[in-house]
Every structure is written in C-alpha cells, then in structure tokens.
Amino acid sequence: MDCIFCKIINKEMPTDFIYEDESVVAFGDIRPSAPIHYLVVPREHIQSIIYLQKNHQEIISKLIFTAKNIAEKFGLKGYKLVFNVGREGGQIIDHLHLHLLGGWKNEAGKINV
Ligand code: 5GP
Ligand code: ZN
C-alpha cells in the first residue's frame, strides 16, 4: 500500500513526532495552515471517517484527547480540530488524521483547512 502517513508511522520517511504511543502519532503539517498545525494520526490505516467502524470509537476518542493534550502543552486557549472527509471534504491523504490548528494572534481564527 502506498500511503505517505503509513510510511511516516513506520519511520520510512523521516518525520519528527511531537507525540507517539502504541496507537497514535502526531507530527507537524508539512504545509502549515496556521501558526500551530499538527496532525494526529492513528497507527492503524483507516482511510477516512467514512470508513469508521463501531470498534473505532476508542481510537477516535484517543485522537481528540491527544490533540487536546498537545494544545494544552502549547498553552492554546482556543483552537480548531478538523477532519477533512473524502475528496469533496478536502481530504488529500487517505489515512485518517485530525488537524490541530491554532496560535493565531487575534481571537477568531478564520481560516479554511
Ligand atoms: P488533508 O487535506 O488530507 O486533510 O490533509 C493532509 C495534510 O497532510 C495536508 O495539510 C498536507 O500539508 C499534509 N501533508 C501531506 N504530505 C505530508 C508529508 O509528507 N509530511 C507531513 N508532515 N505532512 C504532510
Ligand atoms: Zn496509511
């Protein structure tokens, strides 16, 4: 399978992880859309939210808690958590990931991911 994020997870593509454990990794987006832009990614190759099964409830929860912990580490008072879902939803990489975006100076971060 030719999946960039699987390659990153398997360390076939050098990428610094800001966080990793047995089920998720997090790393900086290569083309940041915000001053702080991390991707939180399950180690399991799940194509997108569209392909979620009931047994994925735990991993989805894990992605959100991981993003929350990273945001707290950066002292972010507000931020965006975004899943792009399918091509029509702007998803380019077909390996589920949660975008953590923040760090804007003004109060309302108005951006499109
Ligand atoms: P999507 O549009 O699929 O939700 O977002 C995929 C994100 O992955 C994009 O923001 C893109 O900049 C990022 N990305 C694509 N390829 C790489 C890569 O090789 N390394 C990193 N760190 N990010 C990537
Ligand atoms: Zn993958």
Sum up the structure in keywords:
single chain; 113 residues; alpha+beta; HIT family, subunit A; 5-stranded antiparallel sheet; 5 strands; 20% helix; 22% strand; binds guanosine-5'-monophosphate; binds zinc ion; Histidine_triad_HIT
Which residues sit in consecutive blocks of at least 5 with pLDDT less than 50? none
Determine the oligomeric state from the structure: single chain
Distinct ligands:
guanosine-5'-monophosphate, zinc ion
Give the helices and strands as they follow along the chain.
HEEEHEE
Question: What can you tell me about this protein's structure?
Answer:
With 113 residues, the chain is α+β, with helices and mostly antiparallel strands. The protein has 2 helices and 5 strands. It has a 5-stranded antiparallel β-sheet with strand order 1-2-3-5-4, covered by helices on one side. A hairpin with a 7-residue loop joins strand 2 and strand 3 (36-42). The chain binds guanosine-5'-monophosphate and zinc ion (ZN). Zinc ion binds at residues 3, 5-6, 45, 95. Pfam families: DcpS_C (PF11969).
